[in-house]
Amino acid sequence: MSAALVAVLRDAAARGEFAGDVPEDVPVFARGPGVFESPVALRLGLDPEVVARGVGGVVSRGFVRVTVGVGELVERVRSDPGYGVARVPEFRWDEWPRTFENPGFVVRYAYARAGWAVRWAREAGVPEGVLERAEPDELALVSLLGDFPGRAAQAERERDARPLVLCLEKVAGAYHDVHERRPAMDGGRVALAEAVSRVLGNGLNMIGESPRERI
Q: Where is the signal peptide, in residue numbers (predicted)?
């Protein structure tokens, strides 16, 4: 979403509608499953309608709001190897204890669990599909997946891994809840597990830890 907004700003500058410097990235905040807002127009003194039109969004309280379908968002995450990747300082959780009291274990185990769910589905011949009828806990998880790039960008901007680390812990906790209640027995939920694997894998790599398929 940040890249799309930057592209709109560049187009506006080329048309003479924006005379300032175009930033390399802009802040984007997840406001719900598939709902994103950016204060970029307010911060740059640009008519928010110009930006909103460029990304197919609307203006809400001066913020540019873009809504993406839940299934489309999951598909974007799972199919983008570079989703949310930023330059983040290294961080390390404790290795032990390997219980749910240790947030590092929660994240590592969620990555392993999501990968296992995807492998099992493929071996079982579960056909690919799109997440359409998401339950509330799945919607909460999707919202966290959408927030991931913003937290990674914040961690890079502030040179502090903690915003990203907290996001990873939230994604992992939400995924464990979904995994226990709603196994990946259909294509849409397999896609969701793949998206979780993508986010957690990218996040672990960013903080300097190699993702593990088995814990």
A: none
